[in-house]
Amino acid sequence: MVRIMQMFADGRSRKVVFLAHCLLNQNAISDGTAVYPAAFRELVQFFLEHQVGIVQLPCPELCCLGLDRGNRQGAQSPVTEENTRIRAAMQAPAPSRMLEDLVESVMHQVLEYHRYGFRIIAFLGANRSPNCGVETTSDRNQEMPGRGLFLGALEDRIRAAGLEIPLLGVKASDDLLNLFARLRPLL
After folding, report:
1. InterPro entries recorded for this chain (predicted)?
2. Is the confidence at residue 174, as pLDDT, over 90?
3. Rounded to whole angstroms, how far apart are CA atoms 45 and 60?
4. What is the pTM of this model?
5. Vertex 172, ends 168 and 176: CA angle to 5°?
6. pLDDT at residue number 169
7. Cα gap 143→102, rounded to integer Å
8. Is 171 inside any structural domain?
9. Would 9 be classed as within a structural domain?
10. Which phi and psi (to 5°) does residue 173 adopt?
11. Most buried of the four, 10, 17, 36, 42, by CB within 10 Å?
């Protein structure tokens, strides 16, 4: 059991949200899939307006496979086919071990925030992603219900630690009003 310590009684809100890396940095997303030149601005503004600190998750694909995801022609394939290839590549021994290390690094942050009484609003992933999908992921060359490899592993660790933190998924094509309506009760 993690002992909660009281500190940080200054101007900070003591509320944080963990965001998929590409929501804050579209330059890291797989080739051919970026919607924004830099970041999902409306999402960032929403959290800042509600005084929620933003923690950027590492991009497992960038960290484990590289910016080109091991395929310089990735943008030539349909997104779900390339995502399925990425998912398979992430399950090879070396990337899989690196993914475990990323999960542990994020869990260290989660446990530190929890230990000091911060409220973790949610984890927000990128639906359809083979790693950061929450409601949908890519597998078998299609978008399907389920978790991506990274957020699925994180969810398992969060539960094993006895914590309850909502996981929500988003896509740039989502209706923002609907997304914000899902987020407001968590604030």
Report:
1. TudS-rel
2. no
3. 25
4. 0.89
5. 70
6. 95
7. 24
8. yes
9. no
10. -85, -5
11. 17
Q: pLDDT for 20-73, tens place per residue?
A: 999 998 877 776 666 777 788 899 999 999 999 999 999 999 999 888 776 677
- pLDDT, residue 28, reads 79
Q: CA-to-CA distance for 38 and 6, rounded, in angstroms?
A: 36
Q: Which residues lie below 8 Å from residue 172, measured CB to CB, with a gap of 6+?
A: 35, 36, 40
Residue 172 tokens, joined: 């740039």
**Tokens of residue 116, six digits:** 């000091």
Residue 2 domain-assigned (yes or no): no
Whether 180 maps to a domain, the answer reads yes
DSSP the chain: -PPP-----SS---EEEEE-HHHH-GGGSPTT---SSS--HHHHHHHHHTT-EEEEPP-HHHHHH-TTTT-TTGGGS-HHHHHHHHHHHHTSHHHHHHHHHHHHHHHHHHHHHHHTT-EEEEEEEETT-TTT-SSEEEETTEEEES--HHHHHHHHHHHHTT----EEEE-TTS-HHHHHHHHGGG-
| Res 127: pLDDT | 95
Listed residue (165, 35, 63, 148) closest to 113, CA to CA:
165
Question: Is pLDDT above 60 for 111?
Answer: yes
In one letter, which amino acid is 58?
P
Rounded to 10 degrees, the C-alpha dihedral 59/38/56/41 comes to -140
